[in-house]
Amino acid sequence: MGTNVLYAAFLLICLVDARSTNPHASFSNPPASSSNPPASSTDLPAACKPLPSPDHGTTVCNDLGYLLVCTASCDNGFEFESLSPVERRYCSSYTSTWLNGDAFPSCRVHKPETDGCQSVTPPINGVVRCERSASELICSAQCNSGFIFENHHTLIQRVCDTFDGVWYNGKDFPKCVIDRGDCQPSHAPPFGIVSCNTVNLKVICTSVCQQGYGFKTGENSVQRTCDLNTGLWQDGSKDFPACQKAATTKICQEITGDSNTQILCDDNGSELICTATCVNGTVFENKDLVIKRVCDQFDGTWFNGNKIPSCIVPCEQPIISNNKGITNSDFTASSSFDLFPAVYFGADRARINSTAGKLHLAGGWRPSVDNLDQYIQIDLKNLSRVNGIVTKGRNVVDGNSSNDFTTRFRILYSTDGIHFVSYGDDTVSDKFFAGNSDRDTPVTNMFTCPFDALYVRINPLEWNSHIGLRFELLGCDSSTVSLLSTKAPSHTITTAPSPPQVECTSPLPPQNGIMTCVKAENELVCSGLCNSGFAFQSNKTVEKLTCNLQSGDWLLGKQFPKCQVTTTVSGGSHNHSTHTHPSHTCIAKSLDCKHLSNGDYQTCGDCHFFASCSEGYVYVRPCPVYLVFDSLVRQCMYTSQTCAHSKPSSSVFGR
Fold first, then answer.
1. Reduced to 3 states, what is the DSSP secondary structure of residue 1?
2. Alpha-carbon distance 586 to 607, whole Å?
3. Distance of alpha carbon 179 from alpha carbon 478, whole angstroms
């Protein structure tokens, strides 16, 4: 019988099994036509007539037109020798052939399984017969017609000890797969092994040599492929080349690393496999934990090169604690709490290991007021590569119920102590970091975009009870790392020297709102945004205050208008406004970022402004003069594809 016919019969059996095991399946013949009248029992060949029931059993046959399915079951108190609950036999109306036998096994008196040997499951596309002796249960399995065990055996037995219930060689049977006919694989070459798989009607056989041997061609493995439809092997050959003993003269020379590199090599005859690791607290400069190199002993080729990266001290050391040149005076802050003269809360108490109780020293820095203008700053003395930060809350003595810690903060850095840049990564230009959840448990945040700095400033954004902070920076001296190993943040801009500037002190945020301030050109621009449920009395989405950095004067005042209760409550980010393209999200309220991913978005009020969402918080900033924000490219441009105005408007925001 041809392979295609057998495969078609296999599909029919699978279809019948799927139907017969579904109690809700309906059995109906295809609609009759003039050319194909419905089949009846009188039209069936003699070989496809219903089978007789086994003794002490019952048989039910279903005529599906193209297949006769007979299902037998034993009466109560009896069981099949196979221990299966039912037995099925299939007869093809097209070939007049019973596909898996034309008789049912006998039903015998049921024997309770008191011996511990549980029944076995027949192989897929096969049947099983079990017989008991005084000491053993022996189960024999065969594949249905047109199938063969995947290990090419025709009969497989499993034996169980009835005394202890142990199956000597396991109780599972291999699968019955389509008989490949002419696609039977070749024998494995001496000192080699072969494994075959059937994929998309193709038999793919792969041979590999045992350890100490290799193919003359130098290949690690050799494949042969046969088409099940034609029975033909590609390239006309199913045999594998011989495996020969590996050369005794070693062509591959062992590789070496620096003094902190440990290399172990294993020679399996055909390959030299070398594994390298770093020791003495060092790491590979490419951050890999293990480096593996493999060389072919036949031709001396290193598959992935024979170079080992250098082992270096990781740039994640405590910068502040390890630098004895950093003194207490190198810590500065926006303010320090001084209502309790007996206790010192100064900036230098922000060292990571500060504790309370010694000489009336507080266990951390606390500012004089709790608002968004507060910051703690450190002068690192040397240009340093900063890779991360560790924070803690303010430690207290036993019996003190104070519970001050910072839960959210941002980081700014500088090389001159005057011009600071907010830290950003690939997702947002001003990133907000999650802080602490108690006073003393350290929390570490590593930076995906490390930076070089002389000064680092931490700006608390959210806190528990009061702002309280201790911190440590992780990194190393910039001279020990390549400046090309880290991508510079995209929002850092180098400009020509600017005129001398004076300090413009930040205003208070609007009541029931938030405020962010940035330096733009020769101005300090502070943008105010109302919380959800509130709106400015001026009905503007964003209000701005501007201070001249050369004179220190605030244009049109230093106080935001009030945010008053409004009957229209913002329920999230907006899809359109009178100033934004309707297909793009814009920010109108302080809570709009709660449901948006990190990134820069247009404000709903004016295209000249944009809002950065970071971990659910919003940070509003203006574009440079004469530029507007484009949501498609997420940059300030001369014209915007997503804004109704091609030029920035100053009237919408007022001041």
1. coil
2. 10
3. 68
Residues of the chain with pLDDT under 50: 1-11, 14-45, 114, 482-500, 569-573, 575-579, 582, 646-655
Give the span between the Cα atoms of 387 and 449, in whole angstroms. 8
What is the edge-to-edge ordering of all strands in the sheet holding 221-227? 192-199, 202-209, 221-227, 232-233
Q: List, in order, residues 6 or more apart from 112 with CB less than 8 Å away.
A: none
Q: Determine the Cα–Cα distance for residues 655 and 543; give it in Å rounded to an integer.
A: 7
Distances (CA, A) of 161 to 110, 133, 139, 410: 19, 10, 12, 70
Q: What are phi and psi of 516, to 5 degrees?
A: -135, 145
Tell me how crowded residue 353 is: count the other CB atoms within 10 A of its CB.
11
Q: What is the Cα–Cα distance from 305 to 261, expressed in whole angstroms?
A: 17
Token pair, residue 485, equals 């190993």
Any bridge partners for residue 363, and if so which? Answer: 395
- 386 Cβ contact partners less than 8 Å away, ≥ 6 residues apart: 319, 413, 447, 450, 451, 452, 453, 456, 473, 474, 475
What is the number of other CB atoms lying within 10 angstroms of the CB of residue 578?
A: 8
Write out pLDDT tens, residues 312-334: 888 889 999 999 999 999 999 99
Distance CA 26, CA 350 (A): 77
CA 449 to chain centre: 20
Q: How big is the CA angle at 589 (ends 587 and 590), to the nearest 5 degrees? A: 105
In the numeric block, the tokens 């295809």 are attached to 30
Per-residue DSSP letter, 143: E
Q: Which own/partner pairs from 71-80 qualify as long-range (CB within 8 Å, at least 24 positions apart)?
A: 71/20, 72/104, 74/107, 75/107, 77/109, 77/110, 78/107, 78/108, 78/109, 78/110, 79/107, 79/108, 79/109, 79/110, 79/111, 80/54, 80/104, 80/105, 80/106, 80/107, 80/108
| β-strand pairing of 213-215 with 202-209 | unpaired
Q: What is the pLDDT of residues 410-434, one digit of tens each?
A: 999 999 999 998 898 877 778 899 9
